[in-house]
Amino acid sequence: MFPSFYLIDSEEKLQEVIDAAREDNHNVPLMPNYYCMKDGEICGCFTFWPGNRGVCHIAIWAHSKKMSARDSLIALAIIENFCRMSGYDYIYMPCSETSPYWSYMDKFGFQQMTSPQPYFLKKI
To answer: How far, in Å, CA of 77 to CA of 18, rounded?
Structure first.
């Protein structure tokens, strides 16, 4: 089954997302807006921060065991389309060097930006 996203609409749902990330030895991004479900389980979330000048800021947690590489690509495509439909031209997203996505960011179409924490920019 494909991953799908839902609005985090309660403190209880936010706590479920936090608990799922902790079970995966991860933290959730600051103030996540949406969570990802696959096979009836929470397997990720993302934060969408509206920006200006056509740029939105996205932060993502994807479960290290419940999300395959294919699932992650599908989820990223969904997030990109969400941003595009919201009127944005660019996604600005952090990615640490320890992330399994680090070596693929350029293949995903992102350009690394200079910052204290590595950020990537993608025209969508």
So the answer is: 23
